[in-house]
Amino acid sequence: MANDFFEKVYHTTSQDAVETLYDDWAGTYDDDVTGNDYRTPGRVAEALAAHLPKRDMPILDFACGTGLSGAALAAVGFSVIDGCDLSEPMLETARARGIYRHLVKLEPDEAPNAAPGDYGAIAAIGALSPGAAPAYYLDILLARLAPGGLLALSYNDHTLAESAYTSRLERALETGTVAERFREHGDHLVKLGSKSTVYILEKQAG
Ligand SMILES: C[S@@+](CC[C@H](N)C(=O)[O-])C[C@H]1O[C@@H](n2cnc3c(N)ncnc32)[C@H](O)[C@@H]1O
To answer: What is the Å distance from ligand 1's center to 40 Cα?
Structure first.
């Protein structure tokens, strides 16, 4: 059953179809990904903790899903975490964890309701990908950081293979919108042999 979702997810592109897929996957998502040794949330959380010493800075966990990403952020000490996601059933599981301050359901193509400076960091863990949020969300998230704010981002193998995602990131770096503070390629879903790159990007002034 898990394999059905893993086969489908990276070929699902429209936001309505992505929402339906995660609504259907919510009941088994945690078992399916943790059963495949899902390492990216822990890797992103550790990288963010190394670059953001103030653990009480509010963090937005964009596309938080069932809250595995928020749980990883809480495990390294972050204490004020908000989450948002497209899928209400995924959010229900996140809510039950009791680790988020606020959880918000977003509609397809809706931006998180945040002003620059509301969050010291935004985490986008498994969030920008074929089968998740479109590439242009990179700019949406960066626009919600004040200078000095951090984007803790992961791109999995499927995202890294799509120029729509990689070119957005290259442009943000080349134009000086962000400076790269950390980049590491490593394990994503170990038992599926997949990898991801974790980035810590710092929003620049101007
Ligand atoms: C691979 S899951 C990652 C969930 C969580 N961050 C984790 O690491 O387990 C991708 C999530 O992105 C959400 N998603 C997809 N498009 C979105 C959008 N436009 N806005 C918010 N969430 C979105 C899906 O509902 C799903 O929960």
So the answer is: 14
Residue 65 in contact with ligand 1 by CB distance below 6 A = yes
Q: Decide: 201 in ligand 1 pocket, CB within 6 A.
A: no
Domain residue ranges in the chain: 2-203
Q: Are 136 and 124 in contact (CB under 8 A)?
A: no
d(CA 190, CA 154): 15
- Measured from the CB, is residue 81 less than 6 Å from ligand 1? no
| φ, ψ dihedrals at 129, nearest 5° | -170, 155
Place 2 in a pLDDT band, splitting at 50, 70 and 90. Answer: low
Summarize the confidence of residues 176-202 as an average pLDDT.
Answer: 98
- The CATH code for residues 2-203 is 3.40.50.150
pLDDT at 12: 83
For residue 134, give the ligand 1 atom closest to its CA. 19
Matching residue, tokens 């822990």: 42
Paired tokens of 79: 């204490």
Neighbours of 115 (CB within 10 A): 9
Beta carbon of 58 within 6 Å of any ligand 1 atom:
no
Per-residue pLDDT at 3: 63
